[in-house]
């Protein structure tokens, strides 16, 4: 059975499931989406992960998913890609699936995204949302000659019609969400202020 909404109390327990399973690997694990924005309930769980050394994220997701399946937390796979191991798609690894809390059978949607450290801020903005803010930021970037997505802020190119950068173009190096907002000239919003 799939349950639509996840309470804030339920989602606040998710990082506890990861304790002791990630300390040797990652120090930056955040629940994103509605939870990070302070909403009372969430449609799914968005978990955004990185490692500060910029290298140790490679190959992590496969091991992590296996551990969460062994715990019977992850129950069904929907999408599972490991680009960090293949050197493709900016090195972002993705797992979308269904999970259950210990002792329960109700299933919830979960999205796990593992980003290289140098593009983590872009992933965090995208997976925190909300969708209205993300559209505003993308349109603002386009008006300034850039393309913004969860993997970076890219200069637009002639071959892309002047609107969207290409994957061959290197992203600007911005380390924090605030740096991205500042570069675009958009007023800084704390995560709880992003329910536009």
UniProtKB/TrEMBL annotation:
Question: What is the protein name stated in its UniProt record?
Answer: DNA polymerase
Give the location in the cell.
Nucleus
The UniProt entry's GO biological process terms, in alphabetical order, are: double-strand break repair via nonhomologous end joining
Q: Which residues form the DNA-directed DNA polymerase X domain?
A: 1-195
Taken from the record, one Pfam family name reads: DNA_pol_B_thumb
Q: What's one GO-annotated cellular component?
A: nucleus
- Provide the leader sequence positions: none
Q: What does this protein do?
A: DNA polymerase that functions in several pathways of DNA repair. Involved in base excision repair (BER) responsible for repair of lesions that give rise to abasic (AP) sites in DNA. Also contributes to DNA double-strand break repair by non-homologous end joining and homologous recombination. Has both template-dependent and template-independent (terminal transferase) DNA polymerase activities. Has also a 5'-deoxyribose-5-phosphate lyase (dRP lyase) activity.
- The superkingdom listed in its UniProt entry is Eukaryota
The keyword Cytoplasm is annotated on this UniProt entry: no
What Gene Ontology terms describe what this protein does at the molecular function level? DNA binding; DNA-directed DNA polymerase activity; metal ion binding
Q: Which InterPro entries match?
A: DNA-dir_DNA_pol_X, DNA_pol-X_BS, DNA_pol_B_palm_palm, DNA_Pol_thumb_sf, DNA_pol_X, DNA_pol_X_beta-like, NT_sf, PolB_thumb
Q: Which reaction does it catalyse?
A: DNA(n) + a 2'-deoxyribonucleoside 5'-triphosphate = DNA(n+1) + diphosphate
Q: What is its EC number?
A: 2.7.7.7
Which source organism does the UniProt entry give?
Linum tenue
Q: What keywords are assigned to this protein? A: DNA damage, DNA repair, DNA-directed DNA polymerase, Nucleotidyltransferase, Nucleus, Transferase
Give the main EC class.
Answer: transferase
Task: Report the sequence similarity comment from the record.
Answer: Belongs to the DNA polymerase type-X family.
Q: Which residues cross the membrane?
A: none
